[in-house]
Design a protein that fits this description.
single chain; alpha+beta; 171 residues; four-stranded mixed sheet
Length: 171
């Protein structure tokens, strides 16, 4: 069975890729970072409340509050920030990819390059787009909207069989 996908690597696709990597191969690190950020926010909230009880807010407290707000914003938008960084690093000509899956592996073709990958190289598969995670820093996306050769359910079963990995759905 052969599946073909046409994928545009726009901000939405890159955000889905960042989220897919964060929820699979970077899951432990991401959890630790979120716990650390929550502890920093809680500690600063405690210290700020202590200063408020004394009516002794100063410039340092305001700066600390701004830093806490920055931490909250970064944690809440980390996938989008990672997507913007990835978009800035995209090589010219790789904004669109055609991907063909066959029995032995898959081929990704852009206007400047063609690469062949084996299914055993895939560490994790997530679905919103189908995100094929190849390392903690590298993933490939295939857009379900641009699929030819079968249904989403058929491809999900195909990729699960070929990789031996479950397909994890992310929102």
């Amino acid at each position: 069975m052969t599946f073909r996908f046409e994928t545009d690597y726009d901000l939405e696709t890159l955000t889905a890729m960042a989220k897919g990597i964060r929820r699979t191969v970077r899951k432990k690190r991401s959890c630790l970072v979120h716990i650390f950020a929550a502890l920093v926010v809680l500690m600063e909230a405690f210290f700020l409340l202590m200063d408020l009880r004394k009516n002794a807010l100063d410039v340092g407290d305001v700066l600390a509050l701004i830093a806490v707000l920055a931490i909250i914003i970064v944690v809440r938008t980390e996938d989008r920030l990672n997507a913007r960084t990835a978009r800035a690093r995209l090589l010219p000509g790789t904004e669109h990819a055609s991907t063909v899956f066959d029995e032995d592996g898959y081929t990704v073709t852009t206007s400047v390059n063609e690469g062949r990958w084996q299914y055993k190289q895939i560490f994790a598969v997530t679905e919103r787009y189908f995100i094929l995670t190849l390392s903690k820093d590298y993933a490939q996306a295939v857009d379900k909207e641009g699929m030819q050769g079968g249904s989403t359910a058929e491809f999900r079963a195909f990729i699960k069989e070929k990789t031996g990995k479950p397909v994890v759905y992310i929102k």
